[in-house]
């Protein structure tokens, strides 16, 4: 399908997320994070991160309600949005 929106920083990541079923909005949020595509699959598992690290990631991708979430809720939301 593709997008002609030049505001997408990492077009390949955006398209891959859309192919996985992510919404246009969530795909764009993730693809536009400052470190989009830099980790190359070497990021720590969510369970190995601190709640603060998870909160920061949720903030980067624009997850609403993150300040009231527990660590397990942050993990679930990051995985499923």
Automatic annotation (TrEMBL):
Q: Which Pfam families match?
A: DUF7218, Rho_N
Task: Offer one example of a GO biological process linked to this entry.
Answer: DNA-templated transcription termination
Stretches with biased composition (Basic and acidic residues): 36-51
Boundaries of every Rho termination factor-like N-terminal domain copy: 50-77
Disordered: annotated segments: 21-51
The lineage's top-level taxon is Bacteria
> Which parts pass through the membrane?
none
Q: What is the protein name given in its UniProt record?
A: Rho termination factor
